[in-house]
Amino acid sequence: MPVLQRDAQRSALGARDVLLLDDLGEIILPATPGLGGARAASIGLYMIATVSTCWRVEEELAFVRGLDALEAACVGEHGKGFSALTDAQKLGFLTRWSLDPAGAGMVAMLKRLSVHGYLTSEIGATQALRYDPVPGSYRRIRYAKGDKRWAT
Amino acid sequence: MNAIPAPPAAPAAAQLNIKATAGHTYDAIVIGSGISGGLAAKELCELGLRTLVLERGRTVEHIKDYPTALSAPWELPNRNQLSRQMRAENPIASRHSSFQESTEHFFVKDKEHPYVQTRPYDWIRGYQVGGRSLTWGRWTQRWSEDDFEANAREGIAIDWPIRYRDLAPWYSYVEKFVGISGNRDGLAQVPDGDFLPPLPMTLAEQHFKRQLARHYQDRHLIIARMANLTAPHLGRGSCQNRNLCQRGCPFGGYFSSNSASLPAAAATGLLTMRPDSVVDSIIYDPASGKAKGVRVIDAHTRASTEYFAKIVFVNGSTLNTALILLNSTSDRFPRGMGNDSGELGHNLMDHNCNATIGAEIPLFEDQYYQGRRPGGVYLPRFRNLGSDRTSAYLRGFAYQGNTTRTPQGMPPGLGADLKQALLDPGPWRISMRGIGECLPYHSNRVSLNPSLRDAWGIPLLEIDAAFGDNEHAMTRDMLASGAEMFERAGFTRITTQEAHDSMGLRNHEMGTARMGRDARTSVLNGQNQVWGAPNVFVTDGACMTSSGTANPSLTYMALTARAAHFAVDQLRKGNL
Predict the structure, then answer these.
(1) What are all long-range contacts of B209-213, with beta carbons under 8 Å and residues at least 24 apart?
(2) The complex's ipTM?
(3) I need a labelling partner for B560 at 20 to 30 A (CA). Which of A51, A78, B251, B537 fits?
(4) What pLDDT does residue B23 have?
């Protein structure tokens, strides 16, 4: 897929960012055997909605610029955009970028969005975690290491 | 603010024909349909009075008008996050933890209801049928004998004209209607009530309770007394432990005007509910020496109408009640109804909750819970009681607490390992927030702005209030004492967090029309009657002479029930 030319002065996300954000989210929270990951939870759409509607203007700008810087760094390293890498390359790049002072803030934002967006999605809340809409009572239950926590 | 054209003048009473006046005449008028107004309406209707309730906001019908009550997180457009626009348009309301995407329709839009802050004050409002009884926290405690005596004993402000024994039977009366779950703990500082079965404590809480008993003489942890039902009650269903109360409950599991008081009032056939009715003032009749009715501005048309009644209950919520009384001027009351003393608008208080303490509890890793308990635990006041005497400040504070296994912070890494780590509830954690008494300072006051008016032509309220030295000293001790208790209990990773919330944000605003023994120093007598206008009763937070530590709504309701029964008794005896 050709690398999209990104406007250096842009300050808002657009529809064209959905696939990239899905790909980023999926690396952060991937599908695992029997359980969908962030892409299945439409994380790209969630990120765009949250960043442009809920985050402060300066936070949104930092995210947009950070996303473009991430893509530019990826192109610089691999000659192609993030979505064109293999899964192994994606994880490797993102991990390195998270340790780079220029990228740490952006990866932290992506993690925060991925985690919140995934765990409040239907897949995340009901399959990754446990969700009980009408518990009826409040009672003690046993907990064994590895048991899933409650979504809400 | 632009000058707002005055609403069309109401026709003088003498020009109304007899039929129209009769159509506007009731036995009783209740201003406000919130937690105390709703209860006033129920009491007055059940005592046989044709009662008109004037609510400035829109209708909210129980169950039918709770749009988000059953919404899962993914069903909310922003997953229950506030939008940037919502925060920008509601800078005050959005400071309040209950103001969420799922509840914002139960709060006023700040820009529609301006007020003047002489010192920073967060006025949190819910203008709809039910008021803030829809979104309230539901914690309830009775006042103690000590709370009523404190002003007199310490020479602060004025003495309450009543004592605990005057209110005790009315606490019982109200508890039996409201449905309060709790345990009989035998502590003088939080008297036991007529309770439904208590919610359960977690093992971590029981452990903390034992540690407190081991390390201190006078510190106790009790299950919170909550207006959540632990058994079906008077036609309402048991709380289902969803902990989404402030969205409105389709099961009727918590008490609100909407779920309980107003339906009970309506069942008598004597209730008339008039929403969209902004009260401008109470009309004084010099010939009778009493109020004869209320002047109302329609919220939408701005038409002015008058309603008449033998009794008026003012339950507009503390600050609106003060505003209405201040705006009810006449030759007899040039400074506002009941204001011979000059105290109307003064002595505003709110609870001080600027101290939060947290910790990890390194125990019970094999224990968890199912369900979302709609309350927590309560650590009643211990300071300046019995043999405990601190010189740093007067009065005391309690803590509202909770234990959960809710992870904090972000696990490290990316990928499958991160996903796995997110499933882990982490250790048990405890959090406690102090709730401290605020002294009544005469200088904490509200008044009417001399020139600015709202969209209904009513003067804007000017609020000039702030916490004082006693409150700040108490905050320091709330933090230190909480941390010390956690330390002695063997908890780890103890954190203390001091907030700098303005008065008002805790939404327990009280005072401005205080009860007292003497018309020269108070606005109301011991029966909540306005001095000089004996058929006008104030029983919401405005009537409070001191603030105590208790979550106050139960006390407002007890005072309301007592005053309503007194009012009707007086009416029947021909005294009103």
Answers:
(1) B211/B485, B211/B488, B211/B489, B211/B490, B212/B379, B212/B485, B212/B489
(2) 0.95
(3) B251
(4) 87
